[in-house]
Amino acid sequence: MRFVIAPDSYKGSLSSREVGSVMAAAIRREIPHAEIDVVPMADGGEGTVEALVGACGGRGEEVAVHGPLEPGATALIGLIEQDGEPVYVIETANICGLPMIPADRRDPYAATSRGLGEAIAHALDRGARRLIVGLGGSAVNDGGMGMLAALGVRFADRGGRTLEGRGGDLLRAAAVDWSGLDPRLAACAITAASDVTSPPDGAGGRLARVRAAKGRDARASGGARRGYARVCGAAGAAGRA
């Protein structure tokens, strides 16, 4: 008897490869002579790098990045070939993801996507011209401020003080300076890998859907909503200047 196991990840706990290994072990325990093929799937969340590297015969590379709450994390990024060109695969979930923070410490106001920007910069240092960035499974809700700060964008409060780029900084951002944005991004094609399509706000929007999963109750969404509006307004003003 032959089994093909093609699982996705279990949000916040196991990657698709790990899920497949558990399922395969359970089958072998009951049917010792079974033929089993494990084909990890990915939707942009946990296990995306492992799945694409495994399916495409690529390789992984460990990179030092800022974690969701503090520096000192290590993330796996992948290098695959697509249409004869090298493509770097970066996974938000293993840089600033939910599995990296104990449930009692999850707080999107404190978390940052800075490590994601550092991973992108690392790929650019390696000459990347094409990137796939998996967006699922993150523990952050900073509007991308941390990521952009790591890539050279400066956010400041009303007093001109530089903001680090954590979720809580959404409420303090008053100005955005794009002049330092890494110019190499202009020559890099970036594909966002996501299994959902949702606007930032509204009943079915991102803010309403993620607040509980990332560690905040319903009251937090009002602050995040105002923060998004502040950053978008500041970014628009900078673009018109």
TrEMBL record:
Pfam families: Gly_kinase. One of its GO terms (biological process) is organic acid phosphorylation. SUPFAM superfamilies: Glycerate kinase I (SSF110738). It comes from the Bacteria. Gene3D superfamilies: Glycerate kinase, domain 1, Glycerate kinase, domain 2. The keyword Nucleotide-binding does not apply. One of its GO terms (molecular function) is glycerate kinase activity. Keywords: Kinase, Transferase. Belongs to the glycerate kinase type-1 family. This is Glycerate kinase. It comes from Cohnella rhizosphaerae.
